[in-house]
Amino acid sequence: MNLEQRKAWNANHKQLTNIITKPAQHHQAVQLFLKQHALLYSSKMTGSELQSLEDELLTDIKEETFRTYPVRMTDTSNSIIWHIWHSARIEDMTMNILVNDSDQVLMTEDWQHKMKVPFHHSGNDMLAEEVALLSAAMDIEALLLYRIAVGRRTREIIQSLQPGQLKQKVESARLQKLIEQGAVNEKSQWLVDYWGGKTIAGLVLMPATRHHFIHLNRSIRIKHKVQ
């Protein structure tokens, strides 16, 4: 994505924000979400011919660039692996548990074992040695496939929502389920409070879209600095 495409993505996100809770514009909001979301994932997810932000990151990237940790950036020291794993984990737990009250993608098809990492939480507030372990141990191919699985599941969930549902608040029982499953580590309980104050629309606008945009752009800057 070039600068103009990034500007267009931001403009469309503002439009989505304006219409997402209006039942009369539900179909339009869902279609706009699908367009925005596709631009944040590998084009393999949808079979699109358009280059996505993740495609830009992955083009000609070296394995050592993926794994480099710590990185010397003003806004992060974490590896690219951490950024794309973390953003996928956040989407997985919010869309599947909080929005759909279903199992996380991580819990299906043995994804945690395939990725070869011991962590199943969101990745927030990790110790330096934990990020180092994650960055060194991660099976990158499995991580990229996990991201695609998460993205596809989210698209199914959003398309299943009915007009008016996007205005609903997150149910407290689903927040408790997050805690019970260890999706949020002990130091990151603030996330539960944060998400508890959101509507379904709020989760769509951040964990499923804007959050990826932030972390992918950050990862691309790391790539340009390291490689």
Which regions contain 5 or more consecutive residues with pLDDT less than 50? none
Order of helices and strands: HHHHHHHHHHH
Give helix % range. Answer: 55-70%
> How does the overall form come out from the CA principal axes?
globular
Average pLDDT: 95
CATH architecture grouping: Up-down Bundle
CATH superfamily descriptor: dinb family like domain
Q: If you consult CATH, what is the topology? A: Four Helix Bundle (Hemerythrin (Met), subunit A)
Strand content: under 5%
- What would you call the quaternary organization? single chain
User: What class would the helix/strand composition place it in?
Assistant: mainly alpha
Classified by CATH, the class is: Mainly Alpha
Quickly count the domains: 1
Number of helices: 11
User: How many beta-strand segments?
Assistant: 0
The largest sheet, given as strand count, sense and whether it forms a barrel, is: none
- What gyration radius follows from the Cα positions, in whole Å? 17 Å
Straight-line N-to-C gap: 19 Å
What report would you give on this structure?
This protein has 227 residues and is an all-alpha fold. Helix content is 62%, strand content 0%. It comes from Paenibacillus uliginis N3/975.
